[in-house]
Amino acid sequence: MEVYLKLNVVLEALIDRWYAWSHLVSPATAAMNIKDRHLKIMQSYIRNPKIHAAAVKKPEMLGGPFIDYDGGRVEEIKALFEETKEKRAPMLELCEAISQLNTTLQTEATGFSLNALYDKVPEPLKGYVELYYDLNNHPNFRFFESLLYQSEYYDESTQSVSLQLIDADDSRSFVLSTPRLDDEDMIHLNIPFKENVIEELFKMKRIAGSYETIKEKLNIPADKEELFKSFFTTEAPKKYEPYTGNGIRTRYFGHACVLVETNEVSILVDPVISYDGYESDVNRYTINDLPEEIDYVLITHNHQDHILLETLLQLRHSIKNIIVPSCGKGNLQDPGLKLMFQNIGFHNIIELDDMESITLDKCTITGLPFLGEHSDLDVRSKLCYHIKLHNDFRVLFAADSCNVEPRVYERVQKLVGNADVIFLGMECDGAPLSWLYGPLMPEKLPRDQDNSRRLAGCNYEQARKFINIFNPKDVFVYAMGLEPWLEFISSLKYTDESRPIVESNRLLDDCNQREMVAERLFGEKTIEY
């Protein structure tokens, strides 16, 4: 029987039954998150599930370290806790070794040669690190990350996927704090992310395929077959209508995801695609509003709402090339994106540095400096993108870059010129450093320091100066996490009094007074030039 996969079938990529994001794929950051995020959250839940149940009901606690199982399923969390400790023992040893090495360097590396300290590198790290001083004589170490991926610390058997139907935008718990336990409406499959069968399954959202064949390839358990059968339909989806005009079409898909098309090239930025097939008050584009082949996917930076593996794995069969920012080459807080994508089955990964370009026929993609938004950590894997299309039309994607030093962009503008259209993020509150990077820190920061170092984009003044530098005709505020289908990954809920809304309103008013087209994007938007 030839069938289509329904448009509201969700794939969640999981590691140790936790929602997979880039820091769980890369071995060193995975080790730190297993110990200081997953095990701590589960241990807290086991001790007092009622506190978690109360916390997840409070809007101000959304995104906090609280498991969303209404205080129940404690025995299952206990079992996952014990299984994680046993199966991931090498990762816990690696985490401890990283901590020990850092302590050794901070206490024993006093400016003299580091050669003798290689003997004191803990055994789990021997052969995987280089010791060094920075130019201020502060000791540190870096990983040979490619070797870690070839070691026991990269264990594909911990990877799995879950499949489910969703019928509402807000049906999923916040993914960084709630592991995915067995559920009667969910199918868990022990499939490494790189397996081609994932591509075969999600091709069926566009092209009909054999139900029996895909069922056998996925090895669907007998007790889940009826559920699996409900994931399919004989009704063909609407056909994608390619852009055939002579200009440029941009389509906003929600958050930071924008498709740029001409009749010759398609470029998709930070893919985060919603689902369809159920009632919602918010119109949106979905997977079938994308080209069947996407020439270039651009990744702006290494945060979980900009590298959404759930979307990327579903699109992998359509993606011809991925452009990523280059990284700091082995720094714990800055794992390599090219390595990560290669190890989970993606091909043709291109790294770009600041002011480096890829020149195509009638299209040039240039990586621009991306300031701030990473809590003042030394994170290099971040880029804004300047896309120059035919007829000299220029689009600039600044994502969450925070214009803390306008002189940088003044110098950039002298090299690349103005932009016709700017997409700029203004989530100017941002979470504190510890929310995302806490598990990587050797010591917990004092609260006032932690709160001063935010994962924040531009405020009004920073955005206004950015606009003044590049002098666009159109300004679109995006990457705000406004859409209801993003709450499970962003944990954001705004009111009219929320600072990002107030600040972006000021920018829109300012731009409109100067007769620029200006809008804060929400849901879907098509703009043709």
Strand content: 15-25%
> Any idea what the radius of gyration is?
23 Å
CA-CA gap between termini: 43 Å
Q: Based on helices, strands and strand pairing, what is the structural class?
A: alpha/beta
Spans of at least 5 consecutive residues whose pLDDT stays below 50 are none
Tally of separate helices: 17
What's the mean pLDDT score? 96
Outline the biggest β-sheet.
7 strands, mixed
Shape: globular
Percentage of residues assigned to helices = 25-40%
Tally of strands? 23
Arrangement of strands in the largest sheet: 15-14-13-12-11-10-23
**Oligomeric assembly:** single chain
Notable traits:
single chain; 529 residues; alpha/beta; 7-stranded mixed sheet; 17 helices; 20% strand
